[in-house]
Structures are given as C-alpha cells and as structure tokens.
Amino acid sequence: MSIDKNFQEYFDALERSGGADRCFLCRRTPADVKAFFGFHEDGTPLDPAAYGIEDVVLEKLDIMSYHGLRPVCAVCQLNVDALSLVDELHVVRALLEQMVRDREGLWPSD
Fold first, then answer.
1. Where are the alpha helices (DSSP H) in 1-110?
2. Helix (H, G, I), strand (E, B) or coil at 65
3. Whole-number pLDDT of residue 1
4. Using CA atoms, how far apart are residues 10 and 16, in angstroms rounded to an integer?
5. How far apart are CA 71 and CA 22, in angstroms?
6. What does the pLDDT read at residue 48?
7. Contact criterion met (CB below 8 Å) for 70 and 16
8. Which residues of the chain have pLDDT under 70?
9. Among 99, 86, 25, 30, which residue's Cα sits nearest to residue 58?
10. Which pLDDT score, from 0 to 100, does residue 58 have?
C-alpha cells in the first residue's frame, strides 16, 4: 500500500472521530499505547535492561487501527479478543445497555 493511501486513511479516520487521534474506547493516544506495551514513540524499549531486551524494537508501529468506524487501539482490541475468547461479549453488550438505560442505578446513592 502506498504511503499516500495510508495518510488518506488516517485523515479520513480523524475526520470520523472529530479530529481526535485517540482510541475511541479508552481515549489513549498512540504514544500512550506504545508506553503501555513498554516502548517509546520511536519503537525502542522504555527499560530494556530491566527485561533483558537489549536489541528489541517495536518494528511495526501500527498500534492504532484507523480502518473501523472510529480509531481503536491495540490494547482495546486485545481486551475485546480476550472477552470474546471467554465468551463474555454478551455481558459487555448488556453492560453498555445498562449504562445507557440505568445510569443512575449503577452508582451509589448519596
């Protein structure tokens, strides 16, 4: 894929998300996601000596997906994968519905 097409997809996704280069679900920035996985923005490890990974570099820096309705990060994708593996996506859907329909009931009363 040409770099021109990648830029176009990126800017299209930013337009869909109102200009926010953040995960739609958790609001992490690309830099936040890289830090979550233990890497600087350039793909080098944050603390290689602590983990004995002197020559490890995050080669593919695509830690945000811009192909869906909204940008989503690799952390949220892993969470959805895990929830799917343990067959709990129906619980997430029910919780979202509960959050929409019974917001006040989820929080302690004063």
1. 3-16, 30-36, 48-51, 74-85, 89-101
2. strand
3. 44
4. 10
5. 7
6. 81
7. yes
8. 1-7, 10-11, 54-61
9. 30
10. 65
Structure tokens given for 59: 């080669």
Structure confidence at residue 12 (pLDDT): 75
Q: Secondary structure of the chain: what % helix, strand, coil (to 5)?
A: 50, 5, 45
| Helix, strand, or coil (residue 43) | coil
Q: Which residues contact 39 (CB under 8 A, 6 or more apart)?
A: 45, 46, 58
CB contact set of 84 (below 8 Å; sequence gap of 6+): none
Radius of gyration in angstroms for the set of CA atoms belonging to the chain, rounded to a whole number: 18
b (16+ CB within 10 A) / e for 49-68: eeeeeeeeebeeeebbebee
Cα gap 94→107, rounded to integer Å: 16
Rounded CA gap, 36 and 40, in Å? 10
What's the N-to-C CA distance of the chain in angstroms? Answer: 56
